[in-house]
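Title: Prediction job returns without error message
Component: structure pipeline
Severity: low
Priority: P3
Assignee: unassigned

Description:
Job completed but the reporter wants confirmation the result is attached to the right record. Sequence as submitted:
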Amino acid sequence: MALVEVKTRKKKRVRITPVEDKDYKKLSKGRYYFSWKPFRSLTGVIVYKLQIVDEDEILGVMALVDVSNESRIEIHLLACAKEHVGKHKVYDGIAGHLIAFACRLALKQYGSSACVSLVPKTRLKIHYMRQYGMLDAGWQLFLEGKALSNIILKYLL
């Protein structure tokens, strides 16, 4: 797994691991548009962080909920640090790697019936559909089957 540094086009290897209690200090509203501290105590929610290998900075964060009765993992919340969003971002591919990670977890858990979904902010709905091949299910977007596999192949290999 590797991110691309926008200015140099150099690839940086990344890792995705569960957020630890000490990490919540770094996940501030000033850096991620909102505070992640409330997720520390939510039952059934697992928060993951994306970092460059051998570095401490957290570049992106994602909260996942396992909806086992629907063979689905829901991306409850996903955010990149502010400096990695928009035209002047430092690294490209953070959100894609996090989404692909959720897809891989769903595939391991549910096999061919795996699904990953999210409820997008209105202004991001079209972006998720174009950028990640997500399908429209009304108020939610989702990935399953070939679309789910394509995201894994694109970002995690």
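Comment from assignee: result matches the submitted record. The mean pLDDT is 91.
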